[in-house]
Amino acid sequence: MLEVGNLACSRGDHRLFSGLSFTLHPGQIMQVQGANGSGKTSLLRTLCGFIQPDEGQILWRGKRVRDLGEDYFAELLYLGHLNAIKDELSALENLQMSAGLAGYTVSEQQAITVLRRMGLQRREHLPVRVLSQGQRRRVALARLLTSDAHLWILDEPLTALDVGAVGLMQELIGEHLSNGGMTIFTTHQPLQVAGVQMRQLALS
Amino acid sequence: MNKLSLFGLLGLVIRRDLLLAMRRRADVLTTLIFFVMVVSLFPLGVGPEAEMLRKMASGVVWVAALLSSMLSLPRMFSADYLDGTLEQMLLAPQSLTALVLGKIVAHWMLSGLPLVLIAPVLGLQFDMSLQALWMLVVALLLGTPILSMIGAIGAALTLGLRGGGVLVSLLVLPLCIPVLIFGAGAVDAVNSGMSAVSNLSLLGAFMLFALVFTPFVAAQALRISME
């Protein structure tokens, strides 16, 4: 359970949001909405602990995330604007390396299965450099399938994805939620997850 | 799913950085070629007086090693910063300090170790004696890791800044002066027939001190830079 109480954040002198409170329970999904520059990414980065909030607190399972530190990170999966993949490495190597950084190992067979599901058949051993933007995003999203994190924080996960991949994302998020996971995300594209009520958080 | 231990993570980071460097060899070679060029220019510029060359050899090699390590420093974290990997590293469920230590070790293997290995060959141009060459290698072996470790703090602090490359040199070079003095001093001591133990002990002490503190400080600097 993620509890956010009275959160305030500013960049420079500009106050992005204040008095923000919400609680996210297992199996819930929340979309953060707002115009460009309204602080969606800053909110997600604050939840990850990159940015220290001006006021307020973020609690994970009742404990402050600052005190939890690495225990919180073990249950968190963040996907930002940047794909965090290396052009020089193949899709397979990228997936194994990012799994390693997240603290677990993925066998080659497992990684190939995951990449196939992401629609990257016969691309597993190509350097990511030669893949298209959408395919790179798919490589980055493949992390979602290998991870057992409870809280997914996704910043614009649908950028550069085609219709098929958006459908796949909806399916993945649906599976994650039915396993008791939580998701917070931002998007400017429509995203529906079957059988789950989408909570909205509007930043102005 | 298997959990990765702290040493597993350390090994993974080192392996990853070495693999990336192998796929992008130009970066590693630039540092090495710069070092070879700078050291080789001195005998050409100063003239072939063996006595003078012998005297200046250790200083020249050390200053060149210092400069070429500055050349590779800005690259230590910048690629990971630009493609978002650094964000994921900060979220690793293991200590960030260990992760930074892994990056430092990989950086040293790519930019420090090649200098140590090629230094004796370059030393021959200065007509250095066998003992002096041997001492140069030992001193560089103790000293170059310190340059990578102190440099990591500078690289982490200047991450994402414009002109960060110049700033990192201004930050790091003054801190590296003791390494330069004792490193070059060790070789001079051998040349003048004295024992180099005191110089080497001090270098070793610096290295252990840096090993304990710099990964932690660089990790904190990274957190600040990412905010």
Written description of the protein model:
Chain B: One of its GO terms (biological process) is cytochrome c biosynthetic process. The complex is a heterodimer of chains A (204) and B (227). Chain A has helices at residues 40-48, 65-68, 70-73, 91-101, 108-117, 133-146, 163-178; strands at 2-11, 14-24, 29-33, 55-60, 63-64, 76-79, 104-105, 151-155, 182-186, 198-202. With 204 residues, chain A is an alpha/beta fold. Chain A folds into 2 domains: 1-75 and 149-204, 3-Layer(aba) Sandwich (Rossmann fold), CATH 3.40.50.300; 84-147. In chain A, the strands form 2 sheets. Chain A has a 5-stranded parallel β-sheet, with helices on both faces. A 4-stranded antiparallel β-sheet of chain A has the order 2-1-4-5. In chain A, β1 and β2 form a beta hairpin. The model of chain A has no long low-confidence stretch (mean pLDDT 91). With 227 residues, chain B is mainly alpha-helical. Chain B has one domain. Chain B is 84% helix and 1% strand. The two termini of chain B are 32 Å apart. The model of chain B has no long low-confidence stretch (mean pLDDT 92). Classes of the chains: A alpha/beta (204), B mainly alpha (227). The interface between A and B is medium-sized, with 34 and 29 residues.
Short description:
The complex is a heterodimer of chains A (204) and B (227). By secondary structure, chain A is α/β, with parallel strands linked by helices. Chain A has helices at residues 40-48, 65-68, 70-73, 91-101, 108-117, 133-146, 163-178; strands at residues 2-11, 14-24, 29-33, 55-60, 63-64, 76-79, 104-105, 151-155, 182-186, 198-202.
Strand coverage percent of chain A = 25-35%
**Helix count of chain B?**
10
- Spans of chain B with pLDDT under 50 lasting ≥5 residues? none
CATH topology of the largest domain in chain A: Rossmann fold
Helix/strand order of chain B, N-terminal first = EHHHHHHHHHH
* Approximate shape of chain A: globular
**CATH architecture annotation name of the largest domain in chain A:** 3-Layer(aba) Sandwich
How does the major sheet of chain A shape up? 5 strands, parallel
Indicate the structural class of chain B.
mainly alpha
